[in-house]
Every structure is written in structure tokens, then in C-alpha cells.
Amino acid sequence: MSTSPTGTPVPAAGPSAPAQVDPRGLRFGAAVTSVVLAAALLTVSPAREVALVLVGVQTVVFAIGAFLGVRHSPYGRVFARFVRPRLGAPDELEDARPPQFAQAVGLGFAVVALVALAAGAPVVALVALAFALVAALLNAVVGFCLGCEIYLLARRASTRPA
């Protein structure tokens, strides 16, 4: 068994095998995301500039997770460097593709919120942030990844015979 750049054990597999991630790292990332999104929600009206910065940072984090993979996102790196060594190896690993898709969904909501804030449409920003926050909280608190489930449903639908 080899180790990924983030310290996660990766079973030896062929080149077509999907990357594997520690599910605890996904929940950690969702918890940090929840804090950032909650802070952004709370600052939309009283300090729009602060909300813009927070949403901008979260948008970049989502983009890195969506395009490079969750192991490369800043929250994934913090988990791998500081948290995971204190926890030990996970009981099992998960396919990285569903969480990467979930990051892309989060990116979509963050972009909508960012554009809405920049355009002076705080209600649209609040709605987009609220949807993203609910999804992040579901993952952080109970381990239910809404974006991952959407990914799996889409995969099942695309592989069904016509």
C-alpha cells in the first residue's frame, strides 16, 4: 500500500482506479466550509465587503477541490498535515470522484453568491449561501454528502439501459 501526497493510504491499483480519500477529511473540510459560509451569511448585510472576501476565498477553495481534487484543496491539506496524523489511519477510504463533483456544485453556488454580492443583489447571495451552507452542514454533522448523492444518482441514470 502506498501513501498519497496528503498521507492517506492508497491501495495499489491500476492506472484506471479512482483516487481514494479519507472520509474524515471530507467532513473536516465541510465543517470549515460551514464556518466560512455561516460567517459570510452573517456579514452580507452589515459588512458586504467582508462577505465578498469570505465568499471569494470559499469560491477559490471550491474551485481547487473541483478541478484538482479534494486532496489538493486547502482544507484537505490542513486535515492531512495537522489533523489526520493525530487520528491514525481510517477504517476505509472513499472514491474521490463524488466529493470532487460536490465541490463543483458548491463552486456553482459560491459563484452565484459572489456575483450577486458584487452586483448588489444580497437576497440572491443569501439564498445561494444558504443552500451551500445546508449542504456543508449535512456533510459535517451527519456525514451525508448531498453533492455526492447527486453524482451517484446521475451515474446510475447514465448507465441504465434505454
From TrEMBL:
UniProt KW keywords: Membrane, Transmembrane, Transmembrane helix
InterPro entries on file: DUF4395
Record domain DUF4395: where: 21-156
Transmembrane segments: 50-70, 101-121, 127-154
Keyword ATP-binding in record: no
Protein's UniProt keywords contain tRNA processing: no
Pfam families, sorted: DUF4395
Protein name: DUF4395 domain-containing protein
Organism expressing this protein natively: Aeromicrobium alkaliterrae
Taxon lineage: Bacteria, Bacillati, Actinomycetota, Actinomycetes, Propionibacteriales
